[in-house]
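Running this now, will post back.
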Amino acid sequence: MPALASPLLASSSSELLPVDRTLGIVLVVLLVVAAGVAAYARLADPQENYARGIVLAGVRATVQLAVVSLLIGWVVKHQAALLGFVALMYAVAARTAGRRVTRNRTWWWAFVPVGAGSLPVVAALVVTGLVPVNGTALIPVAGILIGGGLTSTVLGGRRALEELSGRAGEVEAAMALGFSDRDARMEIARPAAAGALVPALDQTRTVGLVTLPGAFVGLLLGGASPVTAGAVQLFVLIALLAVQAIGVTVVLELVARGRITRPPAS
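Update: finished.
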């Protein structure tokens, strides 16, 4: 085994990050620092004050992970509960994405782009046997892919709507030249929405050189060989590229067709 992996395998997960009072204090300090910096810099948009959002996100994450940690042992032993948990992850991701993109009733269309890439990929992995239907395999994989669908929908949808709002005159000019409503919006929104793929592309391009993502490190800590860890991480990155490309394409189409809209600025 390469020398790089040896120090990682020599440490247990508890030694890596002990769950004690010190961890709690450090987490609180980091959360306060993050919120304080956001407040000092006045980081906000028309929908949210990010200083407040950081605090609420940290508290919610703590509560949710505590509940999941208590339930996960039971969920993984019952297939119906397992599938229900995956459905819950999808529903929460779609609602979160929809409310991030718009505050009006069209938010529910976010169920389409969030699921369009992630759910078929998860189903294909289960059908081919690459991912068994058990909690220790299905929940992490489904969570990663559904999370990728959420991210691409939020970034693609917000950027597309913001671009259309800021360049409404160009949309009208294109329509005056004979473009359909959908095509005029698509010409303006496409370049902005496509930028939602940049984080996934950069992560994939720099993996192993700049970052060692969670799946790779987690498998090493669990005792897997570096080759196995690398193969799993490569699979996750490529699957995420597929999920996010589909998500951006679908949300862009929905915005261009006027299915997802944003209330006019007051």
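The CA atoms of residues 33 and 101 lie 27 Å apart. More later if anyone needs it.
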